[in-house]
Amino acid sequence: MFTGLVETLGKVIQIEPIDSGIQFTVVTEWENPDLKLGDSIAINGACMTVTKFSDLGNIFQFYASFKSLELTNLSRLGEGSVVNLERAMAMGQRFGGHMVQGHVDGVAKITSRKQIENEVEEFWVEIPKDLLRFFVKKGSVTLDGISLTVVDVVDGKIQLILIPETMQKTNAKFWKVDGKLNVEVDVLAKYIENYLAKRGESEGN
Q: 129-161: per-residue pLDDT in tens?
């Protein structure tokens, strides 16, 4: 489980095809390094497993299968790409953001970006049609591992307003029009939809 509060940024320094996927090597700097083999890390919001590490985890590797590459934007990473990183939640820590599972539901496309005031940026992002039912104004969404609030929903797109803090601490500073973002919808919306669907089935019998 994650929170969608990005801890730090990492840079991809090596990409190596192996078996049925790709092994990525990432260099970063944790504020409190404690990485272990088998730990879960959200890479641009996709939950991956640490397969090797050195330098207290400031250099680590993870493996992404072809299926994971197909369902996320990890297939678009190249050497030098900057990724958002978040380690799995620890018991007892404060819970900011919202509940994030690290299970990417689809890939969205940035359609517009503009600065509106004092380094505050507005983005419009096109959401896959099969996920639109989970989006409401003021609802939560995770994009590339960042917990964000949906400002508006119009014609299959969501509006986002990103403050300077978010722009500075995440890879959102590098987002470009037509860029692809990993999307994880609010898990509470999934539960509500499932509940209503089952109640409808029950009432129909």
A: 999 999 999 999 999 999 999 999 999 999 999
Please give the Cα distance from 115 to 81 (Å, whole number).
23
pLDDT in tens, 78-90: 999 999 999 997 6
Greatest extent of the chain over all pairs of C-alpha atoms, in Å:
60
What is the residue whose two structure tokens read 């092994």? Answer: 23
For residue 150, which phi and psi values (nearest 5 degrees)?
-80, 120
The listed CATH number (2.60.40.10, 3.20.10.10, 2.40.30.20, 3.30.43.10) that belongs to domain 8-87? 2.40.30.20
Structure-token pair, residue 186:
């609010």
What is the pLDDT at residue 57?
77
Query: Residue 99 CB: number of other CB atoms within 10 A?
Result: 17
